[in-house]
Amino acid sequence: MGAGSSTEAEREPLLVPSHVETNSNPVNSRVYGRRWLVLTLFSLLALMQGMVWNFWGPIQNSAAHAYGFTKSDIAILVLWGPVGFVPWLLFMWLMDKKGLRLSLLVSTLFMVLGAALRSIPLTGQPLRRWLIHGGQLLNGLAGPTMMSAGPYLSTTWFPPDQRATATAVASLFAYLGSAASFIVGPLIVPAPNDTQALTTISAAVSDIFIRDRIQLVMYAELAAIAVLFGAVLLYFPARPPIPPSVAAASQRLSYRSSICRLLSNLRFLMIALAYAVPTGVLAGWSGVLDMVLTPAKVSQVDAGWIGFWSTVGGCVFGVAMARFADSIRGMLKLILVLMLAGASLASTWFTLTCLTSYTHLPSTSAILYTSCILVGIFINSSVPIFLELFIETVYPVPEGITCGVVTFLGNLVTGLLLFFLTFYCKVLDISCLFSKLF
């Protein structure tokens, strides 16, 4: 209509289509089937680390006869697990800078050396006791990686709709290992409940038999850890060739910046406190459960079953809640509130049952077992939900560093509880000695 032809610039579209290439490279994502093999290897290692850590608590009566361990010795053997978290900053740095393969190899090597050290069949009891304590310490040094790397592994290998489930499996297998020790120990190692009525010779034979059965379990655990170490050495990639999601490929904060941000985040510290206190107290309490329940006339085998079902129930319920959280996002806080409320009610029920002379409430084996198991179920099942909440709260802090901080705090609470118990047992031993002398 009399207008001139349009120029090249006027013919440029106002809105660029989404498929037009830009200067920034798109992030490709791919999910590999081998992720389940990686998760299986890591979970089995976490299971063995938990079994070795909780080996002596469920058989404390048998260990007293076989090696002359006192109650304070058992508490110290359990305490080596939290003590192994002292160099946790070094393990978190190794995971952040070198990836999961190298940090897992170092931790597994500690587990192999620890299992081998405590399995040396020496006849001298003092030296044998030192080797057992040294082996437990080396196994405790693997704790920072085994208990903290689950969310890091799930983010590195799994898509967002499977991440909470993978975190639950990887983080709860260490608890499942401690649950397995509640069954394996008391079922294979006999309890010396009938040795008082026997003669000195038969009692000595019984102690030798108990020592042989303990040695058999330690050999079996050493063989299992050695096989897993070989499997990790042959195949355990640090990360997939292509990340499974945009979050896995995104740039994270540096190691120093991550620590500073975590320590200055008040919301994170409040959630970490809510996580560390109940889980830390429960871990220390479970490690000496047989010792705690002995005054209530609970046998070594029954205490093992209580610890087993409380931990296994927590693992199963925790995986179910993680699947629920994967399907419905934004429910993490409500789930945690309900779990902690249930744990509070169950622990109150258990306490009132134990104080029946003051409360005059009925105290039966069924009530004692049920309340004790419910405490473990509610607290243990909250662990993967807590870890997912931590990751969402402090993103883009790396998952390994975040979970390393909170697991260190939980083990700090466990260590304080076991240190108090060790001191209390020492005072009782001294008072008993004075009562015999005077």
TrEMBL record:
Q: Name one GO molecular function term.
A: transmembrane transporter activity
Give a Gene Ontology cellular component term annotated to this protein: lysosomal membrane
* Membrane-traversing stretches: 36-56, 76-95, 102-120, 132-153, 165-189, 216-236, 266-285, 305-322, 334-360, 366-391, 403-424
Topology of the protein relative to the lipid bilayer: Multi-pass membrane protein
One Pfam family recorded for the sequence: MFS_1
Quote the subcellular location field of this record. Lysosome membrane
What this protein is reported to do is described as: Mediates H(+)-dependent pyridoxine transport.
This chain belongs to the protein called Solute carrier family 49 member 4
Q: Cite the source lineage.
A: Eukaryota, Metazoa, Chordata, Craniata, Vertebrata
